């Protein structure tokens, strides 16, 4: 990307971040308060009320809270990016109708902002989990950084796709949050893959997010049996998502204004 | 640096029809899987356009004629449905009274964004800011969200941003109509300076005065088609004449003018029959010839006056005040001829009004208006030059 484009993306991301905390007293502090509050709630509900336990022969003494948290934050980054990005073009109709701006850059901002916030939250949560003795740090946990990059790019491809389609079919803006909620329960975030009934396993494995969540857990917690082939698959899925999203977006972008 | 700034070949635009619910889906399918454009209505028929550096180009036409669409195509906000367009240079555009500001953010934040859109870094905004705040006359409001601004403030800020960017091509769409008088003057002064410095302008306005003052060339769009293009005075006069014709057709069909006992049959100014618009440069004398009908066979009275373009009356007098009687052509046809010296008027836009009156000069029967543009440059203020003398 050229320097002016970088500046523009930087400014768009900055604006996206500001927009979320605009007018709030503590400003950016919410970025850390929110995930910690969320962690406390999950700890209370699943640890105290449900007393959730993981199957022992597979996970040993691993705390359910750590298992949940490591899967939940990547999912949050994905779902939040997508639902925000999906209405980017329609939300910015005022700007797009007056300024000739490369439209595909506009979709970058909500994805980048959501990932920045969720990664920061993820780091805070890891620290708390470590201080609380819920998980042991391992060097492989550093793999979460490239994983987050992959997941962000994978999400960006879908964000391009859905933001372009939403201009034409507004129903997507209403349907997507519901679809994401359904997908949340179909993805092994709240439960391990081993609890999925055998007949439904092919369906569960066809879900790209299950793969990403599994890779995150393996990196941080050392659970699961993913190999280099799965990493390669994640890269292929990311490239496919980027290519499909970009193609559809660039094909439809010249006509956005006619349907806004 | 290329001399051709904008070059468009056969650009046209049609908008798809999206009122029916399935139309959007069908259009989406077509765009994704075929090369055909969706069905739609033409808002701009294919036209060629070439704008060179240093040109100033006015676009006139009625509402819905395609003026804004053309500007949007040049700006790149819209993609042409047919044809192609090349722009070699930076564009600063104020389309539909805004610069794409976000209402929730402060003026300062929006300026940062505008700078980023123009490819400048955030530090440049710091250098800009005092200059922009001063030009927009916006003071401490710069840190308030745009949604709390008055519409005039938004336009002022938008114009200030564009002015600070000094684009190769300035595109404005009816911007001058919103600001108050003093800001309009400031804008016009800025645009004049910008043009004198080699800037290029595309202007859409319903105010012929602005078009004539700022542009040297004009394009008249009528229902998406080019009705005329060329020298600004020829095009704007043709456009105004077209309006007068339409107005008169409406008048003729609604008000039965011939019912009034006194009326102006026809008039001419400097020999031009029933002209609606005159432009004066050096010469400030006009000859007016009015033929009137009086059905009661009594010599009628003619009242004429001059008003400023904003409606303020400047001078008026009637033939009976001057104790002048018309020449009787027949029992009910009369003719007034007079010479009018407009030398005292400062450059600007004025209205010459002619009214037929009854023989006592008591009742006024109709109004005929002639737009008068006085060209020239002066730093004097007001509408008329009063005789004065500075003493030693």
Automatic annotation (TrEMBL), chain A:
ABC transmembrane type-2 domain segment(s): 26-252
Source organism of this protein record: Pseudofulvimonas gallinarii
GO molecular-function term, one example from the UniProt record: ABC-type transporter activity
InterPro entries: ABC2_TM, ABC2_TM_bact-type, ABC_2_transport
Matches recorded under Pfam families: ABC2_membrane (PF01061)
Protein name, as recorded: Transport permease protein
Top-level lineage group: Bacteria
Subcellular location: Cell inner membrane; Cell membrane
From TrEMBL, chain B:
One GO cellular component term noted in the UniProt record for this chain: membrane
All residue ranges annotated as the ABC transporter domain in the record: 23-248
UniProt keyword terms in alphabetical order: ATP-binding, Nucleotide-binding, Transport
UniProt GO MF annotations: ABC-type transporter activity; ATP binding; ATP hydrolysis activity
Family annotation (Pfam families): ABC_tran
UniProt superkingdom: Bacteria
CDD domains: ABC_KpsT_Wzt, Wzt_C-like
Family (UniProt): Belongs to the ABC transporter superfamily.
Protein name: Lipopolysaccharide transport system ATP-binding protein
Record organism: Pseudofulvimonas gallinarii
Lineage: Bacteria, Pseudomonadati, Pseudomonadota, Gammaproteobacteria, Lysobacterales
């Amino acid at each position: 990307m050229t320097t002016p484009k970088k500046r523009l993306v930087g400014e768009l991301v900055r604006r996206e971040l500001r927009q979320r905390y605009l007018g709030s007293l503590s400003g950016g502090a919410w970025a850390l308060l929110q995930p910690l509050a969320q962690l406390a709630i999950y700890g209370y509900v699943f640890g105290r009320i449900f007393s959730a336990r993981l199957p022992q022969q597979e996970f040993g003494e691993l705390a359910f809270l750590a298992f949940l948290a490591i899967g939940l934050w990547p999912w949050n980054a994905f779902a939040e990016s997508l639902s925000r990005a999906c209405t980017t073009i329609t939300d910015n109709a005022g700007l797009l109708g007056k300024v000739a701006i490369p439209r595909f850059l506009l979709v970058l901002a909500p994805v980048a902002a959501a990932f920045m916030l969720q990664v920061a939250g993820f780091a805070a949560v890891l620290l708390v989990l470590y201080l609380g003795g819920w998980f042991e740090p391992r060097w492989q946990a550093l793999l979460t950084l490239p994983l987050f990059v992959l997941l962000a790019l994978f999400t960006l491809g879908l964000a391009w796709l859905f933001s372009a389609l939403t201009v034409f079919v507004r129903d997507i803006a209403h349907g997507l949050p519901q679809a994401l909620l359904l997908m949340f329960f179909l993805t092994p975030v709240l439960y391990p893959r081993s609890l999925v009934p055998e007949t439904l396993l092919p369906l569960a494995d066809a879900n790209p997010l299950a793969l990403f969540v599994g890779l995150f857990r393996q990196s941080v917690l050392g659970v699961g049996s993913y190999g280099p082939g799965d990493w390669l698959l994640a890269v292929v899925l990311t490239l496919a998502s980027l290519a499909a999203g970009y193609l559809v977006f660039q094909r439809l972008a010249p006509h956005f204004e006619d349907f806004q | 640096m290329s001399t051709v700034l904008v070059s468009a070949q056969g650009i046209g635009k049609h908008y798809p029809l999206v009122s029916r619910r399935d139309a959007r889906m069908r259009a989406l399918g077509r765009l994704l899987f075929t090369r055909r454009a969706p069905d739609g209505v033409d808002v701009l028929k294919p036209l060629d356009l070439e704008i060179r550096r240093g040109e100033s180009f006015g676009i006139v036409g009625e509402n819905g004629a395609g003026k804004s669409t053309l500007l949007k195509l040049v700006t790149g906000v819209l993609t042409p449905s047919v044809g192609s367009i090349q722009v070699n240079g930076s564009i600063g555009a104020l389309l539909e009274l805004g610069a794409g500001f976000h209402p929730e953010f402060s003026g300062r934040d929006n300026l940062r964004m505008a700078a980023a859109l123009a490819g400048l870094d955030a530090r440049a905004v710091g250098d800009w800011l005092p200059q922009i705040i001063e030009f927009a006359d916006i003071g401490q409001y710069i840190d308030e969200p745009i949604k709390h601004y008055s519409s005039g403030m938004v336009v002022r800020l938008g114009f200030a941003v564009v002015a600070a960017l000094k684009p190769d091509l300035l595109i404005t769409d009816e911007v001058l109509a919103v600001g108050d008088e003093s800001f309009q003057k400031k804008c016009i002064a800025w645009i004049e300076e910008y043009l004198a410095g080699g800037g290029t302008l595309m202007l859409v306005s319903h105010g012929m005065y602005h078009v004539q003052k700022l542009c040297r060339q004009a394009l008249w769009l009528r229902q998406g088609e080019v009705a005329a293009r060329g020298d600004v005075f020829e095009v704007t006069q043709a456009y105004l004449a077209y309006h007068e014709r339409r107005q008169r057709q409406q008048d003729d069909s609604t008000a039965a003018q011939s019912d009034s006992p006194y009326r102006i049959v026809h008039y001419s100014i400097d020999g031009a029959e029933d002209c609606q618009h005159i432009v004066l440069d050096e010469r400030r004398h006009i000859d007016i010839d009015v033929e009137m009908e009086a059905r009661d066979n009594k010599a009628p009275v003619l009242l004429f006056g001059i008003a400023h373009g904003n409606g303020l009356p400047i001078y008026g007098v009637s033939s009976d005040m001057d104790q002048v009687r018309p020449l009787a052509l027949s029992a009910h046809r009369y003719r007034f001829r007079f010479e009018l010296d407009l030398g005292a008027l400062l450059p600007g836009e004025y209205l010459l009004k002619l009214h037929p009156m009854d023989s006592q000069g008591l009742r006024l029967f109709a109004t005929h208006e002639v737009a008068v543009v006085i060209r020239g440059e002066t730093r004097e203020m007001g509408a008329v030059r009063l005789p004065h003398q500075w003493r030693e």
